[in-house]
Amino acid sequence: MERDGLQDALSHARSKPTKSKPLPLIQRKETRSKTQWYSPRGVNEARHFQNVFDQEERDDELRKHTERELRESNRKLKQKLDAEKEAAAATRRKGAAERARLKREEVAQRKAERDRQKQERDAAEAIQLPRKGKRKVSQSTAPRKKQNRGAAAARSRLVATARSPTPPPTYNSRGRKIAPRKKFEPGS
C-alpha cells in the first residue's frame, strides 16, 4: 500500500503542470504605471470573452475537421467512381474485343465456305469439260431465196456487181460487228 501511494505521488510529480492562459483583460485607459488593477466585473468580462474565443476556436477546429472528413469522403467516392468507370470501360473493351474476334471468325468461316464452294464448282467444271467438248461456233442461217417478182427483180439479178476486196464483216454471239484484224488485210 505504501508502495502504491509512493508510485502515485511520483507519477503525479512527474506530470507536467499545465499552463493557464492569461485572461484577455481589456484596458480601459492608458496610465503611466505598469501595474494594472482590475475589478471583479472586468475579470468576469475577460473570462466571458475568453470563453467566447475558446468556443470560436473549437467551432473553427470542428469546421476544419468536418471539411477534412468531407474532402476525404469525396476523395474516396471519386476513387470508387473512377474504379467503377475503369471497370465498365474494361468490360466494354473486353466485349468489343470479343465481338471483333467473333466477327473475324465469322468472316473466316464465310471465306472458307466460299473457297470450298468454289473448289467444288471448279472440280465439277473440270469433270464436265472433257464430256462437253469444245463449244461449236454458231453458224448463220442460210439466206432465203427471194421470190421472182416481175421484171424489176429479173433486171436486178442480171446486173453483175464487182466483189469488194474486203471480206464480209463477222458478228459475235451478241450480234455486234467484229472488225477484222489489220494484219490479215490483203494490203498489209
Structure description:
The protein is built from 3 helices and 2 strands, in the order αααββ. By secondary structure, the chain is mostly helical. It has a domain of 93 residues. The chain has a two-stranded antiparallel sheet with strand order 1-2.
Main β-sheet: number of strands, strand sense, barrel status?
2 strands, antiparallel
The secondary-structure class comes to: mainly alpha
Strand content: under 5%
Overall morphology? rod-shaped
Mean pLDDT: 80
SSE ordering: HHHEE
What's the end-to-end separation, in Å?
Answer: 146 Å
Placed side by side, the strands forming the largest sheet appear as: 1-2
How many helices in DSSP terms?
3
Low-confidence stretches: none
Portion of residues in helices?
Answer: 55-70%
Rg, please? 59 Å
Number of strands: 2
Note the topology.
Elements: H1 2-14, H2 40-132, H3 151-158, E1 170-171, E2 177-178
Antiparallel strand pairs: 1-2
What key attributes describe this structure?
188 residues; rod-shaped; 3 helices; mainly alpha; two-stranded antiparallel sheet; 2 strands
Question: How would you sum up this structure in a few lines?
Answer:
It is built from three helices and two strands. With 188 residues, the chain is mainly alpha-helical. The chain has a two-stranded antiparallel ribbon with strand order 1-2.
